[in-house]
Structure formats: structure tokens, C-alpha cells
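[recover] target loaded
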């Protein structure tokens, strides 16, 4: 196990050097070197692949935390309509078109509608970490970054809802009605956001009671992990709960920091007051943290996220069976081209409708890298499903293709053209 830990640390170090000197995103280097080591020096790694799904569920809140913490609520509100279009309407329309077109493109397979909805929900879920990793090396318009990164986060919630509450039930033969899906969708969205808001605000209150940087660092992760855990317990969208919790947490901290700049120091009579009065007054009056402590904790959270990513990508590398990928290479290439076309169509429609520069459509298209969440969903397909091996190959194949092809096309475009 120590050997595995050293391998992960060396991979992270090499990936960071690549980003510094070659401008290659950390996530791209991590996944490339992970596959090389996993299939060249397998004795270096001792990670049970059977626990991949549980590992990803544990790491997901840790990986997402720094990305969500860097989002500003007011900027998201300003770009709410484009994000809603790309992350909700765009995904729904792409799933519908994917189901219709695949029936014509692969007529030799007797795919059910439920199977195809499940497939496209899995391969339309994007990876926010890789997008952020690419973007941080370039100076881009603020709205472009907010829309793309926001879409990458909320897109996952839409894909999960489509998979869990429409595709999978239809695949296993459960009855699904438009009214039932609509009610379930509203319930999932409401509960996910409500859980996140409550957990995020409680974390903020706890932060005001503690004034130690280490405690603050721990609280950040408690907020992210507990919101996800509670949401998963109630079978709602855990990613949406993480986003809601961390954004409420960060919004209140930012509000405190602005207040601290304006607020003059006041003489307090805390020692002469009853305990319950002092406790309540401390919550009201205390500033949650300082700007310096917050920035330090955010930097630390990025380091932790890099380590989590390293572990995750090595686990993903161990899952790859190139013989199975070669067996279904035609289906993988066909579905990859189709999903790229659908995302491009959605991107062009969005930039035209919202009157954004046409060059943004290229960026939106190739910011659609896939990640571990897609692999988790494909593992949830029942073993009795006759096309499970094919679907696993398609999902893993598209994750690999999108990671490398999309990333390099996006980097090349951003280097050659001023956005």
C-alpha cells in the first residue's frame, strides 16, 4: 500500500510539472500516466477495482469542493439562463435525439428505449474537474468560464436524474409515466437543494463558533461530504446537494468578509452577559473567517483534490480492458461521434439564442469531457441486462476518447485563437 501511495504522489508531482512547463492539464497527465503505469507496471499498484464505485462516491465531494468554492453566486445568477439551457434543456434534448438516432445507426441491436435513455444519460454527464483544469491555464471571458464550469456541474445532476428515475426504471421493466416522472423530478430537485442549503448554513454557523484554521478546513469537508451522504440516503441528487451546500456556505462567508471590511470594532460586554446571550451574540457578531485563512484553506483543498484525482484515475485505469474495447470499437466510435455532434448542436443553438460569440460554441462542445461518474452509472446496470458488456465498453471508451481528444482540441483552439 505504501508503494501505491508513493506512486500516486509521484504521478501528482509529474502532472503538476507538466502543467507548469507544458501547460497540459493536471487531470490529463494523471489519467495518461495512470494508464501507462497500470498496464506496464501493475505490481506498483494495489487498489481493488471492485471498490471503484464506493471509492468514487467517497472522493466525489472532495474533488468537487474546490471547484464549487470558487464559483460566485452572483455570477451564476447573472448567467442562470444559459446554464439552465445547456445543463437541463440541452441534456434532455440530446438524450431524446440520441435515442431516436441510435435506433437508425445501430439497427442490428434490439435496444429498448429505457436502455438508450440510460446510455445517453451516462455519456452526457461531464467532468467538471478536467474543464477547470484546462481553463485555469488561459485568460478567458468571465461569463464563458462561469457558463461552462456551471454547466459541467449542473449537467451531472440532470444526467443522474434521467438515469436513476427514467432510464433505469424503464430498463428493468418498471412503469414510468410523464406525470410520475415530473413529480419525482420536482421532489428530487427540491429535496436535493433543501438538504444542501440546510447543511451549508449549519456549516457556516459552526464556522462562526470556531476560529482555528484547521477546524475551518475540516468544516469545509464536513459540509461537502455530509450533504452528499444525506442526499444519497434519501435517494436524491447528491451532486446537486454538494453544489447547493458549498455555495450557501461560501456565499455566507463572502457576505461576512464584506461586512468585516465595513464594520468598526465594537466594545462588547460578553463577560457580564448570560451564557446563552453570549452564545447567540457570538454567532451573530463573529466573522466566519478571514480572507487570508479562506485562501489558504482553498489552496489546501486543491492539493487534497489533486491527490483524490490521482487515486481516482489510477482506479479508472485498472478498470480498462483493451480487448473488450477493441471488440466494440465500431460502436464506441459511432456513439462518440454522435454525442460530439449532439453536444455541438446544443452549443451552437445556445450561443445563437443567447447572442454569444460563435467561437464559444467550439469551446462549449469540447468542454464536454466525461469522467468517473459515467463509469459509476454503467456499473449500476443490472447483470441480467444483455448489453451490459457493450455499454461498459462504450462508456469507458468514450471517457477515454473525450478526455484526450476533447482536451487537446480545446487546448489547441484556446492557444491559437483569442476568445
Amino acid at each position: 500500500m505504501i508503494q501505491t501511495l508513493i506512486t500516486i504522489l509521484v504521478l501528482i508531482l509529474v502532472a503538476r510539472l507538466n502543467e507548469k512547463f507544458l501547460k497540459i492539464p493536471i487531470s490529463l497527465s494523471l489519467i495518461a500516466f495512470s494508464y501507462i503505469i497500470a498496464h506496464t507496471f501493475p505490481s506498483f499498484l494495489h487498489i481493488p477495482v471492485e471498490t471503484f464505485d464506493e471509492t468514487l462516491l467517497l472522493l466525489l465531494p472532495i474533488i468537487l469542493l474546490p471547484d464549487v468554492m470558487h464559483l460566485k453566486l452572483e455570477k451564476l445568477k447573472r448567467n442562470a439562463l444559459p446554464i439552465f439551457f445547456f445543463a437541463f434543456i440541452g441534456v434532455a434534448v440530446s438524450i431524446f435525439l440520441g435515442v431516436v438516432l441510435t435506433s437508425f445507426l445501430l439497427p442490428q441491436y434490439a435496444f429498448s428505449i429505457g436502455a438508450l435513455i440510460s446510455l445517453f444519460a451516462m455519456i452526457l454527464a461531464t467532468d467538471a474537474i478536467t474543464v477547470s483544469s484546462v481553463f485555469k491555464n488561459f485568460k478567458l471571458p468571465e461569463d464563458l468560464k462561469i457558463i461552462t464550469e456551471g454547466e459541467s456541474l449542473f449537467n451531472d445532476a440532470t444526467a443522474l436524474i434521467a438515469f436513476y428515475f427514467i432510464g433505469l426504471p424503464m430498463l428493468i421493466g418498471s412503469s414510468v409515466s410523464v406525470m410520475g416522472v415530473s413529480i419525482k423530478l420536482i421532489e428530487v430537485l427540491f429535496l436535493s437543494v433543501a438538504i444542501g442549503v440546510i447543511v451549508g448554513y449549519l456549516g457556516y454557523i459552526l464556522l462562526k463558533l470556531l476560529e482555528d484554521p484547521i477546524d475551518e478546513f475540516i468544516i469545509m469537508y464536513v459540509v461537502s461530504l455530509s450533504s452528499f451522504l444525506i442526499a444519497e440516503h434519501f435517494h436524491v441528487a447528491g451532486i446537486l446537494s454538494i453544489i447547493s451546500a458549498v455555495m450557501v456556505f461560501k456565499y455566507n462567508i463572502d457576505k461576512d468578509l464584506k461586512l468585516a471590511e465595513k464594520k468598526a470594532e465594537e466594545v462588547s460586554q460578553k463577560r457580564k452577559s448570560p451564557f446563552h446571550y453570549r452564545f447567540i451574540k457570538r454567532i451573530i457578531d463573529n466573522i466566519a473567517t478571514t480572507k487570508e485563512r479562506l485562501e489558504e484553506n482553498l489552496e489546501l483543498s486543491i492539493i487534497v483534490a489533486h491527490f483524490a484525482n490521482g487515486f481516482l484515475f489510477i482506479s479508472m485505469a485498472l478498470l480498462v480492458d483493451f480487448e473488450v474495447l477493441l471488440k466494440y470499437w465500431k460502436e464506441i466510435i459511432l456513439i462518440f461521434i454522435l454525442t460530439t455532434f449532439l453536444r455541438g448542436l446544443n452549443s451552437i443553438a445556445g450561443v445563437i439564442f443567447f447572442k454569444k460569440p460563435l467561437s464559444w460554441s467550439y469551446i462549449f462542445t469540447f468542454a464536454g469531457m466525461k469522467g468517473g461518474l459515467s463509469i459509476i452509472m454503467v456499473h449500476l446496470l443490472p447483470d441480467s441486462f444483455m448489453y451490459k458488456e457493450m455499454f461498459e465498453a462504450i462508456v469507458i471508451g468514450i471517457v477515454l476518447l473525450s478526455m484526450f481528444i476533447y482536451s487537446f482540441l480545446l487546448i489547441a483552439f484556446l492557444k491559437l485563437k483569442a476568445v
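[recover] notes: DSSP finds 18 helices and no strands in the chain.
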